[in-house]
Amino acid sequence: MRGSRSKALHDQALVNCQYSMATFSTGDRKRRPHGDRQSSEMTLHLKQTFEAAILTQLYPRSQIDIYVQILQADGGNYCASVNAATLAVIDAGIPMRDYVCACSAGFIEETPLADLNYVEEVTGGPQLALALLPKSDQIALLEMNARLHEDHLERIIEAASKACKDVYAVLDQVVREHLQEVTALLGK
């Protein structure tokens, strides 16, 4: 991908993402090739999510690389990746429309749950991953992995949306504190 002028876009930046999991990240020590189906799917989701948030038109004929490697898989891998990548993109000074905050949600025993852990994910119930631009309430990515009756859909999206806004509050606070520390160190 690097150095490939044929893929460069003349009017905007190309967002290049790569998602991978370390072989020791889960309890089962399966060999995960670099291009397995799950990694390819997560890579595509990350790319779509950040293309919706980054102001790519400000950087024509350039490429923005986002590499994510999961070292410990405890559930919510995509969501943790999005939140960490959001902080990295902000720290790199790349302008975005808004923070991208992500959270998973599930429906277990008639109860919507937000921020699923590994045990809750493997129960087999319906799961949803939501990436949200919280200020404008725009959805960057919404993925559902199982069937769910439409009567329950609004409740599960509402739980995920509220959790995304809670994540936004934490991320925004951390960014502001970091900015104050850097400003104090620079003496401005």
From TrEMBL:
Residues 11-95, 98-163 form the Exoribonuclease phosphorolytic domain. It comes from the Eukaryota. Belongs to the RNase PH family. This is Exosome complex component RRP41. The lineage of its organism: Eukaryota, Metazoa, Chordata, Craniata, Vertebrata. The gene is EXOSC4.
